[in-house]
Fold:
Amino acid sequence: MALVVAKFGGSSVATAERIKNVASRLVRRHNAGNQVVCVVSAMGDNTDHLLDLAHSVNPNPSAREMDMLLSTGEQVSVAVLAMAVQALGVPAVSHTGAQVGIVTDESYTAAKIGAIVGVERLRKDLDEGNIVVVAGFQGINEAGEITTLGRGGSDTTAVALAAAVGADYCEIYSDVDGVYTADPRICPKAHRIERLSYDEMLELSANGAGVLQLRAVEFASKYGVVIHARSTFLPDSKGTIIEEAPDRMDTNYSEGVVISGIAHDLSEAKITMRHVPDRSGIAATIFTRLGEMGVNVDIIIQDVSHDGLTDISFTTPMDDVEHITGTVSEICREIGGEGVEINTHIAKVSLVGAGMKSYPGVAAKMFRTLADAKINISMISTSPICISTVVDADECAHAVQALHTAFGLDSEEEENNVKVVR
Ligand code: ADP
Ligand code: ASP
Ligand code: MG
Structure:
């Protein structure tokens, strides 16, 4: 008998019909003798609708009320899914994050899980023969207030629960049948990857591969939770396994570069402070102030200086731009800069794989490929297993496709291999 945590995302539970489909799958697993914990997201685009609703009554809603509102999306789906399971004659019980003791820090809308204290209750429900359905994306802070874990946070709920209950594995079901060499929506020749290490998946997620939330992969890596990314709609597909040390099919034991995929991210903006003095302490002043505001800064670039002045650019999540614009202009004025430019029409395109740092030719090939495709690169950053470039948002798909081909990732089956079902 296995103990399985299965998480179903918004598209998997978008309608009553789809909820019934998920319920049947859970019941089949349960009837095969497994203990089943199911984590669900809000139905369809409900979280987006709730966000729009909030902003239609207040342009700047308080974070506490936002979490109060957003958490309702998942509360609807857990109750309806539990009812659908019961309709199939199997006992089921639904819980909110608070009811299973998912304790978070204080940061509303982006809370971090600090502990899970409700595992006994969950085990008791399972031992009594229930399928247990838990609301993803939410928790409760020490003060007893409802919090949410950031967009895509149900993945993290699932992995955290899998770790806490000692599940055999954590299945993440979505509209795609695993992790692909690039987002199949923009790269038709992408192919499914059988196995990935946590490190490779961390880089893909960190650079925009939204199929798994970054924090879920971090959590899985920390506690050794094996993730199985699968499709809700294509039950026969094998999906992708993410674990510590994947068995490679290749037994050449070569030291070469292994490219795992191309990731893209359209959710960041580029902020440039123009003509700031090029002297010691300026970068420290800028990024200390931004750090104090909790701003997540990604790629940073400083141009060569002319006449003692330079431009400093950085990327940051688009969602933060409105909230930091005033402060960035203030900092720029204080340090004697000329002004601030904000570009929200950018894409980060990253090549992810092991062994890059030791093979300088990889970066050269990446830049040559983009140049041949007439795509201008405005920023570059490298790490041992990733090279990221920033390009114009309109060039994103073209850049991903060109790199996918250049690095030999194209599927031989061409478009037949693409399996995203909406
Ligand atoms: P859910 O709502 O079920 O959590 P998501 O929309 O968060 O599902 O994740 C699935 C989507 O992730 C896919 O539809 C696909 O467009 C996107 N995606 C981005 N990068 C990748 C990738 N490398 N492999 C597979 N899917 C990807
Ligand atoms: N419903 C939340 C969101 O849309 C959480 C999730 O789906 O994982 O971001
Ligand atoms: Mg998701």
